[in-house]
Specification:
alpha+beta, Heat Shock Protein 90, Ribosomal Protein S5, domain 2, 6 domains, eight-stranded mixed sheet, 23 helices, 25 strands, HATPase_C_sf, histidine kinase, transferase, kinase, EC 2.7.13.3
Length: 841
């Protein structure tokens, strides 16, 4: 209370309260030092009653609390220094200050904001609804008052203007202090504004330095000048508003705006306003006077959507009225679409609309982003947050970890996505004031239950769900990391991984599977090691979605698989019997050899027999025995398949799809028989007939040059190893089929020479370029995109199985084959890619 106020009489007229002067209290003498005069404060009770209360008090009461019964009501006084506290001291970044003014323009329904930089001034023009004289007096000049927060912002909009605009659910700003960003940028401000129905332009002049001269001057006593003029002034390059809008001219700039500063501002506004087409229909442009800087002229924006859409995995999550719908695409292919209710722990978001678009950045996407944007993704940012159309700063900045993604990554580098692995945005439409920002505008959202629920929602329903797919599918295939198309998802192993992901979702009681890619989520090949597990997953998916067609295909494939298993078991049993009989015969032969000395008349025959057995031992008797065992297995299985196909062909209504599958199996097994036979007939070629751990490059070279040329039309084959090797586990028989089929296709094209060239492909991968001198591929008759599909043949002599078998063998190995995109004309030139693991010799 100001000095002297204690001498004034209390103006309280309540009954029973007597005015009184200054008086010493016995309590005062007991509780305080004698020199303190004690006065009664006007509480509406008598002095004697108040003394009684003090007598019972256990703690001495400060003399500052005790006043005389005479007092007056007083008001706060506001220093002119308040301007700096809520202006330059609070908004410490020029870019943030500029953004605050831009947000105010869009809050006023502006569709276009233009910014012009001159030597010592900045002009900001928008085509929003503008302000009347009453708006300026009752809102703009009313410090800390926000009509947006009170809901009065748009009450005076005309009916026709309401029909032209879309009334928003919330505003970018609502604190009533964003206007002081003008003070941050310059010492003086001229504001021009006009509403649609006004015939004149309101003109306000503010000299911010007048608030800085004496802190003892009261804020409200410093004058601003408000008048009216016929029209807006005309800037040098940008256009003034036409029907309505606002123009800010900020003079005597406090900072220098050179090329780098303006360029940084444009990049800042690009991320703040429209990095993911969040504010559709809103544009920002800049212009510079007296400088030839073309890069700084024109609209602000970027094309992140064009860079990433269809080129990497993307998860889209939409929350509407407590229901979450999530759609996952990977390089244009739909993986799944699901729907689920919002968790009870996140009920604070029931009135929110939330849109999440999160992209996984594989090596291909990172390379494309850097080359197009001129900056690495890690330097651009990660997951941006927008509330009611405008970005919340600094969420998404390179070093920001608001959602806890980086902290989680530290717990498991190979199990979790990190800030370097994703890029995206979270766009929230929330009731006004539900997600308040900090006053400084550069520290994110204020910690509220709604903000915490939002962070948890984004982490669980967007980041972690994308993470599950990326870790289990994308990261599991090193070759697929460098691809920007979905070809790598079509192998049996990749499809089996995708089936496991979709099965887990379809099996959840709270999740409804709405859609999925019928091509990717389908029956995998019976020869795949993932076949049985995939059948279980597909059955779950089919039942969840009511897909009777898929369920029927699953059942047919399961029956074929069981029949093949039985046939294989029968073949194996037959082979074992044949092997046992052969060994018994060999033992008898050896016994006969021992008895040969007993019969002189049989000496010559015994010696010849011994020579034959010796020759067999020179060719590795055990190895030939094992190869013979394999031939018997494959031949027996072929015989069983042929019998079954003939039986089905004789039926009245044969299941033709099953017969086609059987015939494909017959072709495959016969290829293996031919490969085993060719290997077995070469005495100097030694290998185990099952899987081996060896240098696959060396094996391919030896088989190509020593064995494959002995059969068919190709008589010359060259294999350039380039001094490279690749140690890995593989089946010699299956790799031989790859070479045999390449030779066969080349021979059908009248080729006489085939060449294999080994080269490095980066990231530890190896490639083999296969070319021949044949007629090539006639693209006018052959669809080159289908040549690896089962049953498709570009030749009348072909079965459509050769290239399909090659593709299947290589995919089972973790590799791939494709037409060389750099081949000349119609030349038949392929690129075989082997998985990581090779090294220089």
């Amino acid at each position: 209370m100001p000095h002297g106020a204690e001498e004034e009489q209390c103006q309280d007229n309540r009954a029973g309260l007597d005015g009184g002067g200054e008086s010493e209290s016995p309590l005062g003498a007991r509780a305080f030092e004698p020199q303190f005069p004690v006065r009664y404060f006007c509480f509406g009770i008598s002095p004697s009653t108040f003394d009684g209360l003090l007598d019972r008090a256990s703690t001495p009461i400060s003399p500052m609390v005790i006043r005389g019964t005479m007092s007056t009501k007083q008001k706060f006084r506001i220093s002119s220094a308040l301007k700096d506290i809520i202006g330059r001291d609070l908004i410490t970044n020029d870019s943030v200050a500029m953004f605050e003014l831009v947000k105010n323009s869009f809050d006023a329904y502006a569709k276009n904001v233009s910014i012009e930089f001159d030597e010592n001034s900045i002009i900001i023009v928008d085509d929003g609804k503008g302000m009347s004289r009453d708006d300026i007096l009752s809102k703009w000049l009313f410090v800390a008052y926000s009509a947006k927060r009170t809901g009065e912002e748009d009450l005076n909009l005309s009916r026709d203007y309401r029909d032209e605009i879309s009334i928003r659910r919330g505003y970018a700003g609502n604190k009533g202090i964003g206007r002081f960003s003008c003070d941050r940028l310059g010492e003086r401000l001229e504001l021009f504004s006009k509403t649609r129905n006004s015939a004149q332009v309101e003109h306000l002049v503010v000299d911010w330095t007048s608030f800085e001269q004496d802190a003892k001057t009261e804020f409200a006593t410093i004058d601003t000048i408000l008048d009216a003029i016929p029209d807006f002034p005309k800037p040098n390059k940008i256009k003034p508003p036409s029907k309505s809008g606002t123009m800010l001219i900020i003079r005597d700039l406090r900072s220098t705006w050179d090329f780098n500063e303006i360029d940084s501002l444009r990049a800042y506004l690009a991320k703040l306003i429209d990095p993911f087409q969040t504010t559709k229909g809103a544009t920002i442009s800049t212009a510079v006077v007296d400088e030839d800087w073309p890069k700084l002229e024109g609209p602000v924006g970027n094309d992140i959507i064009d860079l990433l859409d269809g080129k990497t995995a993307k998860l889209t999550v939409r929350l509407r009225q407590g229901v979450i719908r999530s759609v996952l695409h990977d390089r244009g292919a739909l993986i799944y679409e699901i729907e689920e209710p919002l968790a009870r722990t996140l009920e604070a978001l029931n009135d929110f609309d939330v849109d999440c678009d999160i992209y996984f950045l594989n090596r291909s996407a990172k390379h494309t982003f850097t080359s197009r944007m001129g900056v690495q993704p890690v330097q651009f940012g990660n997951v941006f947050l927008f509330v009611n159309g405008f970005r919340v700063f600094p969420v998404g900045e390179p070093n920001d970890d608001t959602f806890g993604i980086g902290r989680r990554k530290q717990q498991g580098v190979s199990r979790y996505l990190g800030l370097r692995d994703i890029l995206g945005k979270v766009d929230v439409r929330a009731p006004q004031g539900a997600l308040p920002e900090t006053s400084s505008r550069n520290a994110g959202l204020i910690e509220t239950p709604s903000a915490s629920a939002l962070y948890e929602f984004v982490m669980k329903n967007a980041v972690q769900r994308l993470e599950r797919y990326v870790v289990d599918v994308n990261w599991a295939d090193a070759l697929d990391q460098a691809s920007d198309d979905a070809s790598g998802l079509k192998s049996d192993t990749a499809r089996a991984r995708i089936i496991r992901i979709v099965q887990a979702l379809a099996g959840s009681k709270n999740i409804t599977l709405l859609d999925y890619d019928r091509e990717l989520i389908d029956v995998v090949n019976e020869r795949s090691s993932e076949f049985e597990e995939s059948m279980t997953g597909l059955a779950v998916v089919a039942q969840q979605t009511g897909d009777e067609g898929l369920l029927a295909r699953v059942e047919r494939a399961r029956l074929r698989y069981e029949e093949q298993k039985r046939a294989a078991e029968e073949a194996r049993a037959t082979a074992e019997r044949e092997t046992a009989a052969r060994r018994e015969a060999e033992q008898r032969a050896r016994a006969a050899e021992l008895r040969a000395t007993e019969a002189a008349t049989k000496l010559e025959r015994v010696e010849k027999q011994a020579q034959m057995l010796l020759h067999a031992q020179e060719r590795e008797d055990d190895e030939l025995t094992l190869m013979h065992h394999q031939v018997i297995i494959y031949a027996t299985e072929v015989q069983a398949l042929v019998r079954r196909s003939l039986r089905r062909l004789g039926e009245a209504t044969p299941p033709l799809d099953s017969i086609k599958d059987d015939l494909e199996q017959i072709s495959w097994q016969n290829s293996r028989i031919l490969s085993v036979t060719r290997i077995a007939t070469q005495a100097n070629f030694k290998l185990n007939a099952d899987k081996i751990q060896a240098d696959i490059i060396q094996y391919l070279e030896e088989y190509t040059t020593k064995i494959a040329t002995l059969y068919g039309d190709i008589r010359k084959a060259t294999f350039e190893t380039s001094g490279l090797s690749q140690n890995m586990t593989f089946s010699p028989i299956d790799i031989s089929i790859v070479v045999d089929n390449l030779f066969s296709n080349a021979g059908k094209a009248d080729a006489r020479h085939i060449n294999f060239l080994t080269r490095k492909a980066g990231n530890g991968l190896l490639e083999i370029v296969v070319s021949d001198d044949g007629k090539g591929i006639d693209t006018t008759k052959v669809d080159s995109s289908k040549i690896f599909e089962r049953g498709y043949s570009g030749s009348a002599r072909g079965s459509g199985l050769g290239l399909y078998h090659i593709k299947h063998v290589l995919e089972q190995l973790g590799g791939s084959i494709r037409l060389d995109p750099e081949r000349q004309g119609d030349k038949a030139q392929f690129i075989i890619r082997l998985p990581k693991g090779g090294k220089d010799k």
